[in-house]
Predict the structure of Cytochrome c.
Amino acid sequence: MPLKVPGNWVNEVWIPNSDSVNAVLRGKVVYKAYCLSCHQFDGGGVENLNPPLIKTSFVLGDKARFIQIILKGFDKRVEIDGEDYSNNMPPLNFLTDQQIADVLTYVRNDFGNKATMVKAAEVKAVRAKLAQ
Ligand code: HEC
């Protein structure tokens, strides 16, 4: 599926913002290495095991909450769009602030998602708060 990256319509032409193009491309590399095995190539997840990343409130909603999922992992057994997922997500806190910012920017702008970028400084702030 073609990658849609953040940008603006100018005279009916989509002009991606160059920062976000680079972030999305770098983030896709991180996704393939660290997320794809569970959440799958199309972000569709695996039924009853790993949830999809398509337009969920975790992906599109509060950025700090999404950053925290990556840093701390996720084993809350919450229902995601009416389904339960029995696998646990391990913490991926060995990733750098930039890698996390990029992969979240990517996930928020592929799989039919469209949302603002995540910046390394935002990841840094959440990491610092969790360390307190
Ligand atoms: C080992 C498998 C695994 C890996 C690797 C993994 N996840 Fe997850 N992820 C899960 C599972 C399982 C859940 C749900 C856990 C639960 O319901 O308790 C989850 C939950 C989530 C959620 C919140 C629920 C949703 O679907 O919106 C997001 C967002 C997410 N993962 C993104 C990522 C990203 C981005 C990466 C890579 C940086 C990643 N995950 C790597 C298994 C994984």
